[in-house]
Fold this protein.
Amino acid sequence: MARGTHHVTESCRPVTEILQLIGDKWTVLVVRALYDGSRRFSEIRRDMPAVSQRMLTLTLRNLERNGLVTRTVTPSIPPRVDYELTKLGRSLEVPLRGLGEWAADNSTALDAARAKFDVRNKAEKKRQLIKA
């Protein structure tokens, strides 16, 4: 994609799709919860109390649909359902850890940039109000 081009080309589509998949609020947390191996739904949910049952179900289904997670149902009463990262899902660990490290390393700089922008933006809005 050429610099300055603001539409998604076919060559950018895979990146766009992956960013949409892992960029939601819960996907990275669920993948991280499965780094150490197979886990039951209730175990994942217990470690993520802020996620609703419905949202966790949707997130796990989406990960399964995209080949990142396997779902295994063991017939019992009640049925036991386990989730585990596939080989493809495990391959996300390195880039996600890298992104997490980048975020931790740069959070102070990002906070400073936002604060600087907000001050500048507030001053600009004030000047526009005075002109009006």
